[in-house]
Amino acid sequence: MSKNRLKSKERKKEILQVTLSIIYNEGFYNLTIRNIARKTDISEAAIYRHFKNKKEIINKLADWVFSKSRLWQVKSNNNYYQSLKDIMFKLLNHLKFNPEFTSILFHEEIFREYPKVREKFNKHRLHNEKHIVSIIKEGQKNGVFDQEVNPHTFALLYMGSIRVTVLKWQNSSQQVLVEKTINNITHELFKILKPT
Fold first, then answer.
1. Domain total for the chain?
2. Digit-coded pLDDT (tens) for 95-107
3. Range of 79's domain?
4. Cα torsion for 135, 87, 80, 196, to the nearest 10°?
5. Which residue of 1, 75, 104, 139 could cross-link 145, Cys pair, CB 3.0 to 4.6 Å?
């Protein structure tokens, strides 16, 4: 790989990171090529050498954010309760240290403005949901989880609890205790799964 190509790749990553920072800190409607150029300390023309337009930047940013926020990247093991805990820990810990990712993961304005990003989000959500459903079904098959639990409904509760937790963090000035939060959430969610 040539030095120029590597430099170009690094520049693209910098542009994406700055774009994410602008959306998170200043709001989606303050995102302009001029603002990106000012914050990256390069010309607007230089940005257009890396990306065709703002739409392409947003689409590439969505790809990057969604690739870093996949629940199915955590391998499940035979301890299904622990697998569910590990997945939640990985994602909430990731969002605690990268809160700017929420500006893409949970941003309705971007979804409205950029239908491709909505499609990517829906695909991302569906993959996450399928992963949780597969763990629940496997746990039921092995007699660990209650047979009456609807795996799809549980997956929605599980994923919804992650989203609401992150939104609560965003509106709170308190220190975020990931492990304690996860223990509290999973303690309640796991009551649903326990066989009666």
1. 2
2. 888 888 888 888 7
3. 65-193
4. -90
5. 139
Instruction: Read off the DSSP letter of residue 76.
Output: P
**Inter-residue long-range contacts of 92-95, CB under 8 Å, 24+ positions, other chains counted:** 92/162, 92/165, 92/166, 92/178, 92/181, 92/182, 93/178, 94/68, 94/69, 95/69, 95/166, 95/169
pTM of the predicted model as reported, rounded to 2 decimal places: 0.82
- Residues contacting residue 75 through CB under 8 Å, at least 6 positions apart: none
Shared-domain flag, residues 82 and 31: no
One domain for residues 77 and 170: yes
- Same structural domain, 43 and 72: no
pLDDT digits (tens, 9 = 90+) for 134-189: 999 999 999 999 999 999 999 999 999 988 888 888 777 667 778 888 999 999 99
Residues 6 or more apart whose Cβ sits within 8 Å of residue 114: 55, 58, 59, 62
